[in-house]
Recover the amino acids of this structure.
């Protein structure tokens, strides 16, 4: 995530990581501010207005899963940088990598249980344990290895979606129908409009900090493992693609502008129509729980992945051709501090929306929520560069690095002698 140990810094790679950490807030802002059912179902709290539907549609087609995918790809690229840096410095590449992943897993669990349930760090750490095995593969081999991971990541939820659809239609064999009907009823109770689950989350997150932590450590205690089982395969596939794109020099900003433009155009033109079709499908079913599950967890994955690559190409094109040196420097600084910015975002947003803070949970519509994104993006861009002008690392990057190496790392930069 941080790429901080790299002997060679790539400003374009840091800059796209800065865009990714900002973009992931655009994906997560609904989950910070509204009950989780509303993340995928704009009708979860009642009949949605046109602005709610339009914002949900935009998010589903262009943002949701794409920013997480971009973050995952960049994690794969950064992992190669850290491994190469350790080897170049004469340290054990395996020791450096696995130490980082163990500490990242602990950070992720602390993030989940103490700050916010939407953690991805634990997932990344467990996936990262496997990445080391692929470090020396060629671009072609990395892309080929990503295919079986994606097939499993798509096949498992797609098979469940198929069974749920048959249960809904009443076409399952009797021996399988009972279990699937129970699963279907639970899914409708969890994701349907104006359900008791929605009201329960409203009450929970407008409550005290202690009650929220008790809920996470109790009823939600096993969720990091469940989340891992749902997204491990897809995430490893994305990380392998990120490693391949790094080795191909795509993520280091070394392609010609025309090549970035071509990739962005092709990826968006292929991926956007099917994603728009899946959004319309969900709308026409009245945001049926089975339709939402199939569309978001299984059917969209190939197109989400393709659009993620398109986003990477488009961002690189804009960094290369449109961004001024000052803008690139601000984005790169935010990317070098992505670990800190990611966790600080969770602290800030939960403090704004949860009951132990400003208590705005459930009271802000989807479209106005982006104002909070803009404010947090501005904060990242404003504070990251001045911080890195004085210090070698972001505060949490420094802590992660110090723990991983089992010794305190130098933090403050020493002024050059005049």
């Amino acid at each position: 995530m941080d790429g901080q140990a790299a002997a060679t810094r790539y400003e374009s790679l840091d800059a796209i990581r800065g865009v990714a950490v900002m973009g992931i807030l655009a994906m997560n802002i609904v989950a910070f501010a509204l009950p989780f059912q509303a993340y995928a179902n704009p009708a979860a709290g009642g009949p949605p207005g046109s602005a709610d539907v339009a914002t949900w549609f935009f998010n589903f087609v262009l943002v949701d899963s794409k920013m997480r995918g971009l973050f995952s790809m960049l994690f794969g690229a950064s992992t190669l940088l850290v491994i190469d840096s350790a080897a170049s410095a004469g340290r054990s590449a395996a020791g450096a990598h696995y130490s980082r992943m163990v500490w990242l897993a602990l950070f992720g669990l602390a993030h989940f249980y103490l700050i916010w349930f939407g953690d991805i760090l634990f997932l990344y750490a467990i996936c990262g344990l496997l990445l080391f095995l692929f470090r020396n593969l060629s671009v072609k081999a990395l892309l080929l290895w990503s295919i079986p991971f994606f097939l499993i990541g798509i096949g498992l939820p797609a098979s469940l979606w198929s069974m749920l659809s048959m249960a809904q239609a009443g076409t399952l064999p009797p021996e399988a129908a009972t279990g699937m009907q129970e699963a279907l009823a639970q899914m409708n109770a969890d994701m349907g409009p104006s359900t008791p689950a929605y009201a329960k989350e409203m009450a929970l997150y407008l409550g005290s900090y202690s009650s929220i932590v008790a809920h996470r450590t109790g009823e939600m205690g096993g969720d990091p493992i469940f989340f891992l089982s749902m997204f491990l395969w897809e995430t490893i596939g994305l990380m392998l693609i990120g490693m391949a794109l790094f080795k191909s020099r795509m993520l280091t900003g070394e392609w010609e502008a025309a090549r970035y433009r071509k990739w962005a155009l092709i990826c968006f033109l292929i991926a956007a129509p099917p994603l728009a079709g899946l959004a319309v499908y969900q709308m026409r079913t009245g945001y049926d729980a089975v339709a939402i599950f199939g569309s978001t967890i299984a059917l969209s994955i190939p197109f989400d992945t393709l659009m993620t690559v398109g986003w990477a190409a488009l961002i690189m094109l804009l960094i290369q051709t449109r961004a001024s040196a000052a803008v690139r420097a601000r984005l790169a600084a935010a990317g070098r501090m992505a670990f800190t910015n990611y966790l600080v975002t969770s602290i800030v947003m939960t403090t704004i929306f949860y009951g132990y803070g400003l208590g705005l949970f459930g009271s802000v519509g989807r479209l106005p929520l982006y104002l909070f994104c803009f404010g947090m993006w501005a904060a990242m861009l404003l504070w990251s560069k001045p911080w890195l002008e004085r210090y070698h690392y972001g505060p949490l990057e420094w802590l992660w690095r110090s723990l991983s190496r089992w010794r305190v790392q130098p933090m403050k930069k020493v002024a050059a002698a005049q």
The chain has 18 helices and no strands. Confidence is low (pLDDT under 50) at residues 1-7.
